[in-house]
Specification:
CATH topology: Endonuclease, Chain A
Structural class: alpha+beta
Strand order of the largest sheet: 3-4-5-6-7
CATH class: Alpha Beta
Number of strands: 7
Shape: globular
């Protein structure tokens, strides 16, 4: 996160160092599944969409974010099954206007299907379901 200060008409930006450090640590310790999906998303490789990884939003870190399309992609392991924490998190993120699309790590076996699902969500062609939350339940 970045803060902006104005001292005598000189604008200075500072980074929130603890948040930046945590995001960097999460990037360094990415899971194999996160590294594989990042290979698909990085450098605008997916239909020219700009994604970032381990991006701080509110007090959470999103696995992958396309700010232009207000889309968050999360990769979940088995520890996330029926997670009340994730449900609360998704509600707070959708309240900020983000759409949250979750995949299980095992779904990486079919990268083409994942690409198509992500593109459908980015283009707002995907209807909400239990693993895809949207503000107000709209596509």
């Amino acid at each position: 996160m970045m803060s902006v200060f104005n001292y005598d008409n000189v604008v200075m930006r500072t980074r929130d160092l603890p948040t930046t450090s945590r995001a960097q640590e999460l990037r360094r310790s990415s899971t194999e599944a996160e590294r594989r999906l990042w290979g698909v998303l990085r450098n605008r490789r997916l239909s020219g969409l700009k994604f970032t990884r381990q991006t701080p939003i509110l007090h959470y870190f999103a696995d992958f974010v396309c700010r232009e399309r207000m889309l968050i992609i999360e990769l979940d392991g088995s520890q996330h099954a029926d997670s009340a924490y994730d449900n609360t998190r998704d509600l707070q993120l959708t309240a900020q206007g983000y759409r949250v699309l979750r995949f299980w790590n095992g779904e990486l076996q079919d990268l083409d299907a994942m690409r198509n699902t992500i593109l459908a969500a980015a283009d707002r062609r995907l209807e909400p379901f239990d693993r895809y939350k949207t503000p107000g339940g709209l596509p």
